[in-house]
Amino acid sequence: MPEHQRKTYKILTLNQIAHHGLCRFPTEIFQVGKDITEPDAILVRSHNLLNQNIPISVKAIGRAGAGTNNIPVPDMNNRGIPVFNTPGANANAVKELALACLFLAARNLVPALQFAKNLQGDDVMLDNQAEDGKKLFSGIELPGRTLGIIGLGEIGRLVANSALRLGMKVIGYDPQITIDSAWNLSAEVKKANSMEDLLRHSEFVSVHVPLLNSTRQLIDDKFIKLMKQNVTLLNFSRREVVNEEAILTGIATNKLKYYVSDFPSQKLQHQQSVITLPHLGASTQEAEENCAVMVVDQLIDYLQNGNITHT
Ligand code: MLT
């Protein structure tokens, strides 16, 4: 091993996920842990580093995930500290959960599961009560229904292509890129000229934009007003992309049938029409391993060789 690679790097890891990536390198080149002082690098998943003191010793930050909104990126850039993330590495996992939630909403599974758990009596009584459930929770099927996708990055494109395979009509819009530049997107995806155009047609809307100044509170009262009645809105983007007051208005005016969000919310969690998850989109064995490997490779390449890739 060349002499310059013999240095031991101190990596402050605030999540076990790093293990998948680090275990492929010789252990003697790292000191890894939660209590490392004067770290060369910090490796996080969703741990919030905003307004935290980033030690002077830090030369790089790794984020095992696509979004970097938990990292003070402009400050780090000013200090010449690169931030490495993992776009695409967990996209399939997020897509699968978004699709699961389409089915969940279409078949009213959350209230139906609760209803079934609360039934009481012998088997005959349970069967009779189940008859009520059939009426209460009768759902809809997805083929022929229109899914509007806002944000056509890696995840949005995967959701679009899978929804088409389910027989859905798909209409896409991306506030950042022109749809023509969204590679890997089936020609069958209809191009919306505006958000209004997308909302006019969609019975399901799935949001997959990154959190930027331009996307913060993107889903507001105006957006909700433009929707059809009884729409299911999925948010696998970030909590801050949605104005939660507008969601309450959407529920009260029957614009929204369900709001499914991958982010817990104090304001919304007791609403019957709101289904919240504890940010599980990227939580699969495969995605966690992909993210860890991708971020650690970038971090080590930078610490050892000064190379900057994928930022
Ligand atoms: C992402 O930005 O890709 C996700 O927040 C990753 C995660 O949930 O860890």
UniProtKB/TrEMBL annotation:
Q: Which UniProt keywords apply?
A: Oxidoreductase
Q: Which family does it belong to?
A: Belongs to the D-isomer specific 2-hydroxyacid dehydrogenase family.
Give the transmembrane ranges: none
Q: What is this protein called?
A: 3-phosphoglycerate dehydrogenase
Q: Lineage of the native species?
A: Bacteria, Pseudomonadati, Pseudomonadota, Betaproteobacteria, Nitrosomonadales
Residues forming the D-isomer specific 2-hydroxyacid dehydrogenase catalytic domain are 34-311
The full protein's residues present here are 1 to 311 of 398
UniProt GO molecular function: NAD binding; oxidoreductase activity, acting on the CH-OH group of donors, NAD or NADP as acceptor
Pathway assigned in UniProt: Amino-acid biosynthesis
The record places domain D-isomer specific 2-hydroxyacid dehydrogenase NAD-binding at 113-280
Q: Does the UniProt entry include the keyword Oxidoreductase?
A: yes
Q: Which domain of life is it from?
A: Bacteria
